[in-house]
């Protein structure tokens, strides 16, 4: 069930590609005991509702606020009853995302018959060895991108073309991700492709498979990164987490002749034992779900460095996934100060599970080394 509220927009706080953040005043009869009374922060997706202005009445979905859950603390604008967005102009495309929900929208799929790229993808079946970095959490994306660009610069290579393939395990709208917006605005990410029920990318695709093929053959990507959108869902059970799909992405990349690179979810600061060191999410997704071999990238550092003990723990835990115990190949990549500096130079604040780069550097360096290794594969 949905918890509904009516409200009036007080002010526009900020905007980024595809989204408008507003402060709204809830109607006086809204219940106070559920934490949604008074003024709240709300988010509108402009492709769905248009952009609300101060003084407008809006209809909100506050289900997450009532239950004390995520969505970044936002109420979500469902409609502007007094200023309905105009119909989309007639055009090609019949791929429906968020299908059979009240907010389903129709887009042009890069792989559908009406697409100008349909002929390119119709019989496409090979990524021609493109490295495909797979990760669990959306917060890994900027770190992987930093690792790719840092290593390419160190080798004297032109910046590789990077495609982000956003799966639908977390947020469905790409516009929810300020990370993607900042990377695009900074010229660090070449294309975003939304697949499955996710929508709002530069290209839309039906599956991870066609998303990867479009990255390679339509946009000429050198490296692809496959990660769910913001908002990882977990239940504290062995199998009940959305990051299980990381293992399926490894299978897709290998099936299509790509070179899968497994970025590990690592933490030196998470208070939950199941995520300390190597997260059980990575161990399950890569150890049980991924049936094709991948390069499992482990950070390495010099003795005496602040993260040396963490890296030793992660290496020991990741070894169970790799030859001779498992099907994957363990690759060690130096997590040095230059790589840490590349992370700090990104034009956005790094954050994972509420912790920033200073609070949990291991989490971001573990993703960055996967990006480094992807470039090393290109250079071979």
Briefly say what this structure is.
The protein folds into 2 domains: 76 residues, OB fold (Dihydrolipoamide Acetyltransferase, E2P) (Beta Barrel); 260 residues, Rossmann fold (3-Layer(aba) Sandwich). The chain contains 11 helices and 17 strands.
Model description:
There is one protein chain. This protein has 380 residues and is an alpha/beta fold. The protein has 2 domains: 76 residues, OB fold (Dihydrolipoamide Acetyltransferase, E2P), CATH 2.40.50; 260 residues, Rossmann fold, CATH 3.40.50. It is built from 11 helices and 17 strands. The strands form 4 sheets. The chain has an 8-stranded parallel β-sheet with strand order 11-10-9-12-8-13-16-17, with helices on both faces. Strands 1-2-3-5-4 form a 5-stranded mixed β-barrel. Strands 6-7 form a two-stranded antiparallel sheet. Strand 6 and strand 7 form a beta hairpin. The chain is globular. The model has no long low-confidence stretch (mean pLDDT 93).
């Amino acid at each position: 069930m949905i918890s509904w509220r009516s409200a009036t927009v007080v002010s526009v706080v900020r905007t980024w590609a595809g989204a408008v953040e507003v402060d709204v005043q809830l109607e006086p009869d809204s219940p106070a005991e559920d934490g949604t009374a008074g003024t709240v922060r709300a988010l509108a997706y402009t492709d769905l509702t248009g952009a609300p202005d101060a003084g407008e009445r809006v209809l909100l979905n506050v289900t997450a606020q009532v239950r004390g859950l995520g969505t970044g603390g936002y109420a979500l604008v469902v409609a502007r009853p007094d200023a309905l967005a105009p119909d989309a102009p007639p055009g090609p495309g019949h791929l429906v995302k968020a299908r059979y929900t009240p907010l389903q929208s129709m887009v042009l799929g890069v792989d559908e018959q009406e697409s100008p790229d349909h002929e390119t993808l119709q019989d496409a079946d090979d990524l021609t060895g493109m490295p495909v970095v797979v990760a669990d959490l959306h917060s890994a994306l900027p770190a992987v991108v930093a690792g790719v660009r840092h290593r390419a610069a160190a080798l004297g290579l032109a910046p590789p073309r990077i495609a982000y393939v956003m799966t639908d395990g977390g947020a469905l709208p790409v516009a929810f991700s300020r990370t993607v917006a900042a990377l695009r605005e900074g010229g660090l990410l070449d294309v975003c492709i939304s697949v499955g029920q996710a929508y709002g990318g530069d290209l839309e695709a039906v599956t991870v498979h066609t998303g990867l093929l479009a990255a390679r053959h339509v946009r000429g990507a050198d490296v692809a990164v496959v990660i769910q959108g913001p908002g990882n869902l977990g239940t504290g059970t062995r199998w009940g987490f959305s990051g299980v799909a990381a293992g399926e992405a490894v299978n897709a990349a290998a099936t299509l002749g790509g070179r899968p690179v497994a970025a590990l979810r690592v933490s030196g600061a998470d208070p939950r034992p199941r995520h300390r060191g190597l997260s059980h999410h990575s161990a399950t997704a890569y150890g049980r779900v991924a049936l094709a071999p991948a390069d499992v990238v482990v950070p390495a550092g010099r003795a005496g460095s602040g993260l040396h003990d963490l890296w030793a723990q992660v290496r020991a835990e990741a070894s169970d996934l790799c030859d001779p115990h498992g099907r994957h190949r363990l690759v060690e990549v130096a997590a040095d100060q230059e790589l840490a500096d590349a992370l700090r130079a990104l034009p956005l604040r790094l954050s994972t599970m509420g912790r920033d780069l200073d609070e949990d550097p291991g989490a971001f360096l573990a993703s960055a080394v996967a990006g480094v290794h992807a470039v090393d594969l290109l250079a071979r």
